[in-house]
């Protein structure tokens, strides 16, 4: 921030302003800003496109200035930075970072993701900069750096995780052996311990000496982090731990060295509370370090598939270079078993390539000259050469990784509740701890305390505890049990797992909101052409009259249509060639507009066209009329054929359904989703296609620009609508739908609009996307219920609600055990999502046993 | 930390310390008037604990409010 202080409230910002073209614009911006209360000086520079504003910071703010500039028709461009923030451990840390960064003048939005350890910040450059944002986060006690991508990111992430893991492992090695000794020492006089536990271990000074390193070596991290936050007005769960450990340790120390001070004396040293409390919290941190990040394994696996080297032809020689040095246009050589380094087009050779890591397709795909290959896929059988077309951040893999990372850095709407609760939780818990302390100090102790009181699952007696020690114990236990760590992990960890699972199956969610919205869908609208159908007409029926052969009819039709450039003609030629028929050249050709075509071939006069053509030429079509009507009812375009003035047969052409369209529609209907089809075709053709696929709602004769309006009509009926279509042509309808699903985009995912991008041209992935969305939301709900139930039941128990009836209390160490287990159980529950497979994938796995991979035709 | 931030931090500390002391004094007053006999250790220990908790409650509330008022 270019902020110069002239007096205590005077500040200066330099805001970029876009859209100014002349001195009049400059004057307009200056004049507008000067009318703001608190603005002292404004200097707008047309050439640099910046407005330097000096203002009273207590009267004016950057958001108001930006709004005023926007109101008069100019733009203040925002910048975005994605940061890696390490050291956050709960939802309160998230709230703390968000609150601190959001409070900076010039920052417009902050989204912090706990499991992804990321912060996406949007800000106005000139009002604030990346360095200052990073400094602000660092000041809270977290490590921060700009997010990097690719192998470097993988290495850095691995290194950081290993560092955290080593740190928490060290803490475990210190905390647990010492805590065990403290516990044995504390209970030395009980059960069978006197027979084998040496007497000195029960000595309070020895116990104090054993507890002190636990509180100050593994426990130091909590004091350090909480103080860093507290001095900047932010609190997190470290503060709960620090107050808990601190209070238990101080009481134990006072009762050891000054037993007559009135804190309960030697009988209430609670060393095991301070020691085990720290040990359990460290256990929780250790488990988090062990499990965190596993939810994004799909992306890490993808990253690790990137080839490190590539063999390219340079000056006629094959040389091995680093994969990131490959340039567009380089000819790359790939041998069997090698990973393809970048995206490109095959120039020579033949092979089958395993693309499962990108598309989720389990069968290897055949590649020959002209086929597209994708970086990170694996060459299986042959060798081939290809020309690099996309390298570096442009490759499909880099785009997919970026898209998934962006999705994982976003927040699902359901998380707002958890964030709100966690953000206000710490202060709330401390207020509660105060109330608990007041209650047990002034009322509870006098009314309910009995010297036989015990902790749950502990033989330890509280007989010698005084009013202060008793109220303090309950107050500390309340603080410990209230940590909202499970609440913080519940949503983002499941979103990470869900988006990762999608990426594994070639389904890319663009954001957490897309995952949540897809789970709520109850209507899916499919665009017809290119989505439900293959998008190009094919020959579907060939009918020959008596005296003519089917193949001859198809071959003659192809000869007749060969010179025409009509799509139907091309379909016939393609169909004949596809059946291995020879398609010769017509001797002469004539197009008869509105009727059909006429050609001569080897002395035969061939007519191909509609009924009018046959009527015009006085050709009796006999019973072909009935057959033709039947084909037209099926939505096909039927053409009559006559050879030498005699009706010879019918050729029907239609845009055919994709192979999995019917099963996908059936599955959606079984899931309770209404399915509709939208098309520009006439009603009869549309209905015929819809019948074949099992769709009852048909929106026919809809122009591309009106598709969005049809989506609105469905939404007005209260439906949550997904629009499935071409990500480029159907963009308005995809944008209007609750979820836009762009299908069959191939690997250039960045160009696609839509909330969900399906890499494969397989309509069953629409089902897969909804299933993954629903599975993820189920997991989030389970996690949230668990986290809320834990806190809602744990807090009253810790506050001593059962004590008046049972005489039992929850000890601080038991509270810390519950707290650690709550976040571990949420993480483990989320990890179960890794085993989830969409229904079609499960069926594929079942049917492909034993697997006999056969190459498929290239896309 | 620039001058504005230092000023905000100073002003905020006056406010949250004053509020925490008020709560602590309320605690002390109750120990004196509620009829129970408390040891001085219980009384002082309680005051320290109440003061710490009150500071923790008030610091995150007061600091951003004062910071916003001073720094805009």
Helix content of chain B: over 70%
Number of strands of chain A: 31
Structural class of chain B: mainly alpha
Content of β-strand of chain A: 15-25%
Low-confidence stretches of chain B: none
Q: So what's the oligomer here?
A: heterodimer
- Per DSSP, the total helix count of chain A is 30
What's the pLDDT, averaged over the residues of chain B? Answer: 85
Total strand count of chain B, please?
Answer: 0
Transmembrane segments (chain B): 12-34, 46-66
Organism (chain B): Desulfosporosinus nitroreducens
Keywords (chain B): Membrane, Transmembrane, Transmembrane helix
Protein name (chain B): DUF2798 domain-containing protein
Structure overview:
- The complex is a heterodimer of chains A (859) and B (72).
- By secondary structure, chain A is of the alpha+beta class.
- Chain A is elongated.
- By secondary structure, chain B is mainly alpha-helical.
- Chain B has one domain.
- In chain B, 88% of the residues lie in helices and 0% in strands.
- The relative contact order of chain B is 0.20.
- The A-B interface holds A 3, 5, 8-9, 11, 55-61, 99, 103, 105, 230-235, 239, 243, 247, 261-263, 426-427, 430-431, 433-434, 437-438, 441-442, 446, 466-468, 471-472, 475 and B 2-4, 7, 9, 12, 23, 27, 30-31, 34, 36, 38-42, 45-46, 49-50, 52-54, 56-57, 59-64, 67-72.
Brief characterization of the structure:
Chain B: This is DUF2798 domain-containing protein. The complex is a heterodimer of chains A (about 850) and B (about 70). Chain A is of the alpha+beta class and about 850 residues long.
Task: Give descriptors for this structure.
heterodimer; A: alpha+beta; 6-stranded antiparallel sheet; 30 helices; disordered N terminus; B: 72 residues; 2 helices; elongated; transmembrane helix (chain B); transmembrane (chain B); membrane (chain B)
Task: Set out the fold topology.
The complex is a heterodimer of chains A (859) and B (72).
Chain A: E1 10-16, H1 23-34, E2 39-45, E3 50-56, H2 62-71, E4 79-86, H3 91-102, E5 107-113, E6 118-123, H4 130-139, E7 143-146, H5 150-186, H6 193-196, H7 204-216, H8 220-230, H9 237-257, H10 271-291, H11 297-304, E8 309-314, E9 317-322, E10 331-334, E11 343-349, E12 351-354, H12 356-359, E13 365-367, E14 372-373, E15 378-379, E16 384-390, H13 396-408, H14 415-448, E17 454-455, H15 467-481, H16 485-504, E18 507-509, H17 512-519, E19 523-527, H18 528-532, E20 533-544, H19 550-561, H20 567-578, E21 588-592, E22 596-601, E23 604-609, H21 611-616, H22 624-633, E24 637-643, E25 646-657, H23 661-670, E26 674-678, H24 683-693, E27 697-699, H25 707-716, E28 721-725, H26 731-736, E29 739-742, E30 756-758, H27 764-798, H28 803-806, E31 808-809, H29 812-831, H30 839-847
Parallel strand pairs in A: 17-31, 19-26, 19-28, 26-27, 28-29, 29-30
Antiparallel strand pairs in A: 1-3, 2-3, 4-6, 4-7, 5-6, 8-9, 8-10, 10-16, 11-14, 11-16, 12-13, 12-15, 18-30, 20-25, 21-22, 22-23, 23-24, 24-25
Helix pairs in contact in A: 3-14, 5-7, 5-10, 7-9, 7-10, 8-9, 9-10, 9-15, 10-29, 13-16, 14-15, 14-16, 15-27, 15-29, 16-27, 16-29, 17-27, 19-20, 23-27, 27-29
Chain B: H1 3-33, H2 40-71
Helix pairs in contact in B: 1-2
Protein name (chain B): DUF2798 domain-containing protein
Keywords (chain B): Membrane, Transmembrane, Transmembrane helix
Transmembrane segments (chain B): 12-34, 46-66
